[in-house]
Design a protein that fits this description.
The protein is mainly β. About 5% of the residues lie in helices and about 40% in strands. Strands 4-5-6-7 form a 4-stranded antiparallel sheet, with no helix packed on it. The longest helix is centred in the first third of the chain and has 9 residues.
Length: about 325
Amino acid sequence: TSAADEDAPSTTDGSEATGAEPAIADPSDDQMVRLASLPGRLAVASNGALAVISPDGLDVEPVEEDPGTVVAHGVWSHDARRLAWSRVTESGGDVVVRDVASGVDDVSELVGDPAFYLQWDAEDRALALLRADPGLAGVELGLVEPGAPAQRLGAAGPLFLSWSPGAPVLAVHAQDTEVLVLPLPATGQSAPDGMTPASVLVDSSGYSAPAWVDDTRIVAAVASGLVLLDVVSGEQAPLVDTGGGARFVLSPDRARLAYVVTGQSGATSPAGFTLGGTDPSQPATSAPPAGGPGLNVVEVATGAIEIVTPETPLAFEWSPDSEQLAWLEAG
């Protein structure tokens, strides 16, 4: 056969495909040069080992690859001076935080299951962790200060979290029923006045991590759509009326929210967050219309909505400068 015949796309039954199908090609030489010029390094956990690599996929530097050790979820601190990861050895699980300049590790032991998710606070003083709850209540939320024993904060099933950008406060979406704020003075920082531990803000809807617009307001999904919640006063302001749940991503500049409507999740959970809290405040009664059925963007300040595409993407993400939005559609 000719080269052209060999390169022709075909279906699974061997017949030649018709029409132009999207394909993922190897990066061009120009793209590789641009990737190589990007700053920083990626932490990649694969096959139980952890390495850091340059953005072009070259210059691989192993971080931990000891036999009998399983490593997962490497995450950089915001200042890129420390790298944290979850580790399982023959003696048990722990969270490791390495100072990149000195190579010194601070190790926090975990009793029971290892962490499957880690997230640094805004000041890089502590990490929130998620793991299977030893008490079988779904997912355990914990706090780790590098080198110190992990602290249990509570458990629910499932559980999503987000650190405040300027205070040691976690916004937590616990099971399918509530959004809470958890001030954490143990980190040595102070939280905004008026916050109390485990303040239940609102009956929630669907599973999604709350997003902080500023130090005292978060976006959360509720039964009617997306709302802005003041974590001090508990007041709610409607943002988008979706008539059900929504998946959303806040832009890095915290000015716009990309979202798709998902409807009610219908999911159930074995238990609520173990810390409890106060009664939720009453939700707002009206909000702007939801936009289109696909991917939409709403301005946080004005509520103005732009329909980006009528197709519902599998995933979507903002560029670091908040100027572009990338999304992935089913082929």
